[in-house]
């Protein structure tokens, strides 16, 4: 029996999109590391075009100087926002596909990301997909994916600063959830705002967690809801080499 084609399309679309974020992350980081400040300044526009009617004067040299120090964590920030959006989207797509077939779900009727993650995390308890190491990482991967959701909320709703909701809105996995050490320090002394600052290692960990959970959730849906009984999804079996042009163009 073949994979259910509709579920496979949703999975592969999200998987490709995650590949695309990684490609952008790696390319931009490499470009940042080998570009001279003077070259950057010469390529920047002379004015900041804010709207169709307004432009503001700015100092390109000052901008480059600031971006040199902030680019690494702002780059991580932008890419994690993209990853969270992709994962939120595929959960909505999976849930709506199953509901359209009258395969009603016990959770997830609230379309917000947190309830849909809670639904997906419950479904993932049945996964048998992946290596022993991948299965052993299931709990931590779920914590990491929820952690990115909470980081994203800080980025989008609190100007990239920690607040109490970062902790109070966590989805515990087996009674546990992660807190960044910077938040723990800020919680003890809230006299100064504390920005979310993550690095390349954080991006690598969170990216891998989303990819692994996506593959496992797809496998659960194929087996539990679509009747699939064959071997798990494999790029090799699908004859799916990395085609960066196709991935980056979304086709």
Give an overview of the whole structure.
The chain is mainly alpha-helical and 251 residues long. It has one domain (5-48, 57-231). It has helices at 5-33, 37-43, 60-100, 113-124, 132-136, 138-157, 165-168, 181-188, 200-224, 244-249; strands at 47-49, 55-57. It has a two-stranded antiparallel ribbon with strand order 1-2. It is globular. The two termini are 26 Å apart.
State mean pLDDT (0 to 100 scale): 96
- Sheet with most strands: strand arrangement: 1-2
Helix/strand order: HHEEHHHHHHHH
Terminal CA distance: 26 Å
Kindly state the number of beta strands.
2
Low-confidence stretches: none
DSSP helical segment count: 10
Q: How many domains make up the coordinates?
A: 1
What structural class should be given to the helix and strand makeup?
mainly alpha
Rg from alpha-carbon coordinates: 21 Å
> Mind summarizing the main beta sheet?
2 strands, antiparallel
> Strand-residue fraction?
under 5%
Key structural traits:
251 residues; mainly alpha; 2 strands; 63% helix
């Amino acid at each position: 029996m073949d994979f259910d084609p509709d579920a496979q399309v949703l999975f592969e679309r999200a998987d490709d999109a995650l590949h695309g974020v990684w490609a952008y992350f790696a390319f931009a980081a490499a470009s940042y590391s080998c570009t001279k400040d003077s070259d950057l300044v010469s390529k920047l526009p002379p004015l900041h075009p804010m709207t169709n009617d307004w432009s503001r004067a700015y100092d390109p040299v000052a901008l480059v100087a600031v971006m040199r120090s902030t680019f690494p964590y702002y780059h991580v920030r932008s890419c994690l926002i993209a990853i969270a959006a992709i994962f939120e989207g595929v959960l909505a797509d999976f849930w709506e596909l199953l509901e359209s077939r009258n395969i009603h779900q016990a959770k997830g009727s609230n379309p917000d990301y947190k309830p849909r993650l809670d639904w997906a995390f419950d479904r993932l308890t049945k996964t048998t997909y992946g290596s022993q190491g991948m299965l052993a990482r299931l709990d931590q991967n779920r914590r990491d994916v929820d952690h990115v959701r909470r980081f994203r909320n800080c980025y989008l709703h609190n100007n990239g600063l920690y607040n109490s909701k970062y902790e109070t809105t966590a989805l515990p996995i087996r009674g546990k959830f992660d807190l960044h050490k910077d938040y723990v320090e800020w919680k003890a002394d809230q006299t100064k705002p504390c920005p979310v600052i993550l690095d390349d290692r954080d991006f690598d960990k969170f990216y891998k967690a989303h990819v692994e959970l996506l593959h496992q959730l797809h496998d659960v849906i194929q087996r539990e809801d679509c009747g699939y009984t064959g071997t798990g999804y494999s790029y090799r079996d699908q004859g799916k080499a990395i085609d960066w042009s196709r991935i980056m163009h979304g086709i």
